[in-house]
Amino acid sequence: MTPTAATTTTMTSPAPARDRVLVEARAIRKVFDLGSHFLERTRREVKALNDVSITIRRGESFCLVGESGCGKSTLARVMMGLLPPSSGEVHFDGTRIDGLRHKARKPFHRRMQMIFQNPYASLNPRRTVQQTLEEPLRFHRPDLSDAEVKAKVEAVMVSVGNDPSWGTRYPHEFSGGQRQRISIARALMVDPEFVVADEPISALDVSIQAQVLNVMMDARDQRDLTYLFITHDLSVVRHFGTRVGVMYLGSLCELAETKTLFANPRHPYTRLLLSAIPRVSTEEMKPPGLPGEVPSAMNLPSGCVFHDRCPLAEARCSVDVPAPLPQDDGTLVACHAVEEGRG
Amino acid sequence: MPLLDVRDLRVEFPTRHGVLTALHDVDFTVDRGERLGIVGESGAGKSVAAFAILNLISRPGHIAGGSILFEGQNLTRLSIHQMRRVRGNRISMIFQDPMMTLNPVLTIGTQMVETLKAHRKIGDAEARRIAATRLGEVKIPSPDKRLDSYPHELSGGMRQRVVIAIALLTEPALIIADEPTTALDVTIQAEIMSLMLDLCKTHGVGLILITHDLAVVSQVTQRVVVLYAGRVVETGKTARVVQDPVHPYTRGLLAALPGEGTAGARLNQIRGSMPPLTAVPAGCPFHPRCDHVQDSCRAALPALEDLDGHRVRCTRARDLASGVAA
Questions:
Q1: What is the ipTM, given to two decimal places?
Q2: Residues of A with CB below 8 A from B269's CB?
Q3: Which end of chain A is more exposed for a tag (fewer CB within 10 A), N or C?
Q4: pTM for this structure?
Q5: CATH number for the domain whose boundaries are B1-90+212-243
């Protein structure tokens, strides 16, 4: 992606070039310690992330896809600073932010915001919409006057298609789609540069999903937002994403431009996922190419985490962990079979 | 004669704020071995329809009108005792969350044997043998061993397979599945749905599939009923409804799906949201959200218009179907 004339001229200094890396996760590992049974010597642990690296460039809508338990939400939480990584580094706009003390971190919190899956759980039921929306602004911008805060709340509400008169009402008075638009407004209150959306439309009805996706896309265009969008729904990825990372059991299998991934999926797991997308069609449903289910992250398979389900697996796959290797078109694929040309 | 014939079904819930009508004059039929989809958004009345068939509407809600004919009996008139012989025996139900359906403190075998013995006079050994056969049919590896497992020892997909095996135990004529794969991952969803499709065909069982997912409905069912605010708005052969929808709501739902052609563009959204049952607008319940609205839509509820077998509740159904009002 090259910076267009329009974006470079309207930007104030220092000019954030479009292809500059905004957020980077380097070799993140995250292990959750479950403690040990009193009769056992070994400690039980869940290896939620195993050496995952991604970079997100300014202006991108980066999507993370995978099935439940693949670590996509954990990675997002580590990048947001809601969870400390067990090892690895998180960089935001050139500064390492994991491990920063609270005060040093505060300016970064303003620049990165999050939208959660369930708008019934993520809005405080005892606060009016106005109180919910004012809070982040009063915390991060104590210099603003009451009138300025009110004006800002109204402007953001209008920009996401909400009626500003909702302010005096409570979350229970709204439908799921309306609540999710309030959550989006809350995230946008402090003018963030980076927004993490964790399954923001999964809990909504079909006709409402389109509304919320449109609001998120409008916000991206108006505010030059960078998104990390987490979803299990590949048809949403194809619609929304610029680049996609496919995760399986805490490892990154494939990372590609959205168009490339759908046109030419390389990792066997990506192919399985693509084959399972339900489509509106008159053909009868067929079972996906590979049977079986995701193993437990408490007991990871050796070598490649996908080898015990993979049709291309050979002896090497159960021993060596494949590294994400760049292909001709820049796609990263972590698969021995692809590397050896067997894919 | 169809296996199940639901006519003019009306379900009401009395509340402090007056009587809410969750289903208005709903008609549909299921033939022997036929697969019917019921689609709609949350609150449209899909689950209420399923619960009404099994007489499971919780008090003070009740069936206020209409009839449900199943294998020649009117289910709305059966006593509690007679209904028990139908429910879980001739009609089985599969719910969304298998962890809520299965009893966590009993083994799978105990639960399966219990179900069989409730409906048939057979011994434990015979019941266990049937249970193991059914587990094998839903492709659970080493079924004999699995009978002694507890639900928490199985993954979500395996649990839903067990639930399907239990639904098949008594060789029912009809299975009602309420969002059976919504809680599961996509790859597991595809496996479970294609398994259900296979089993319905091989056993000749009728299926009512309740879901919000038009893609799943299109690939599994033969006919479909689209519900909106407690009314049937469109019904017909599934292939025709998904390829050639007529009602503006069905068209809107299908157009709102992100697909290959939409990448990067705005999605076609239906404006607003479905009204709560306390505030269903007069006339056509969809009119405030409809792009084709006319004065007549606000005045009176349109009847179900029959376009050779494809029925649509819209005053402009014929215009829309012929492309006059595009």
A1: 0.80
A2: 207, 210-211, 214
A3: N
A4: 0.86
A5: 3.40.50.300
